[in-house]
Amino acid sequence: MLNLPANVVTGTPRIEKDRIGGDLVIVPVRPYSRDMGRCARCGEHDRPYDRLPARRWRHLDIGCTRLLLEHAPQRVDCAEHGVTVAMVPWARRQSACTRDFEQRVAWPGVHAPRSAVSRLIRVDWKSVGPICRRVADDLRSQRGAGLFDHLRSIGVDETGCRKGHTYMTVVVDHDRGHVIWMHDGRGQKVFDLFFQALTPARRESIRVVTGDGARWIDECVFRWCPMAERILDGFHIVSRATDALDKVRTAAWREARKTGTAGKGAKDPVKGARRALLKDPGRLTAGQKAQLECVANTNETLWEAYKLKERLRMILRQTAGEAAPMLRQWAADASLSGIKEFSKLGEKIDRRRFDILRTIRSGLSNARLEAVNNRIKTTIKIGYGYRNLDNLIALVMLKCGGLNLQLPGRQ
Ligand SMILES: [Zn+2]
């Protein structure tokens, strides 16, 4: 009934009062003798050193009552690690909570902001991040180096967090749709660290590297896995067009405001149409369709820019043979459109035309790459308050790293 961890010998539970008069259930526990006297860092059996005063570990609540496990831990003298507190089977090293309790915190931790988790489970909000990190480290070490086995196509991206003040480099395994590596910072030096973590055989197994058009990606791929094909991410190409379209929209709205023809706030046809313009046309609501129609009738430049963006998206869905002439035509039309943002983009796309065709030929599903990318971004938003970047990385790993995070008792 108490859902105590397996592998412990339990004594008689007792009830105590906490500082504010609430009930606490205290259960004295100890490991089985075969689990006693092990170093917490290497797990080896060691010589006993001494015994520390009793400590408590927070375990899963019983109903609304907190439950604490109580044990006076032994210290052991490890040949390698010196005098350390012995391992206890119910908790991770240097944690005041049981493994089950930590899973219980980490699971909602990847879905909800930590303030919500903190209230739901009655745990200090500052400990949510470190708990997620311990769980992620543990799950990752269970997977061992296997995380980097059989890599075939990988993607690299830099993601801004904290309103773009900090950047993270994220590496995704496209075949499994998982984040496999993440590091704070961006650029060539950071991406080098990823390749340094791989054995030469693992580097050689990589056949495809996707990413945006940044030169540092080209350089790293050339240096570390020259046999791999370097491909541009389809969604990065589309997002360039989307960014250009948004700039055209902002300019149009400013112009309308200057001439006094703008509506108020979101009611203005141009300002209010932002979502409608940027969204996939297949998923527009009736209201958004009407907004687009209004743009088509009132703002020629913006409508032209919108059509260019949609055409580019359609081209990326064609086969490479069909796309080649369409892409050339698109680049020419964009360059001559007279819209500054799209003229520039047209030239850029013309320059990287063959890279884009390679993207199409690779058959990597753009929608899937984008979905993984979006999942990473939402997780980073959830971890917005995390001061410690390692905790944030742990959060992304738990949510997008393919780690098997389960609620306690539901394996
Ligand atoms: Zn040791």
Describe this structure as you would to a colleague.
This protein is an alpha+beta fold and about 400 residues long. Among the domains are: about 1-90, no CATH class; about 235-360. About 45% of the residues lie in helices and about 20% in strands. It is elongated. The model has no long low-confidence stretch (mean pLDDT about 85). It binds zinc ion. The site of zinc ion has 7 residues, from loops.
Features:
alpha+beta; binds zinc ion; 13 strands; 411 residues; five-stranded mixed beta sheet
Range of strand content: 15-25%
The helicity comes to 40-55%
Nearest-angstrom radius of gyration? 28 Å
Oligomer state equals single chain
Taking all residues together, what is the mean pLDDT?
Answer: 86
Q: Could you give a short account of the major beta sheet?
A: 5 strands, mixed
What structural class should be given to the helix and strand makeup? alpha+beta
- How would you spell out the order of helices and strands? EEEEEEEEHHHEEEHHEHEHHHHHHHHH
The total strand number stands at 13
Instruction: Enumerate the spans where pLDDT stays under 50 for 5 or more consecutive residues.
Output: none
Q: What is the general shape?
A: elongated
Bound molecules: zinc ion
Separation of the first and last Cα atoms: 18 Å
- Helix run count: 15
Protein name: ISL3 family transposase
Domain Transposase IS204/IS1001/IS1096/IS1165 DDE: 154-394
Domain Transposase IS204/IS1001/IS1096/IS1165 helix-turn-helix: 88-135
Pfam family, one: DDE_Tnp_ISL3
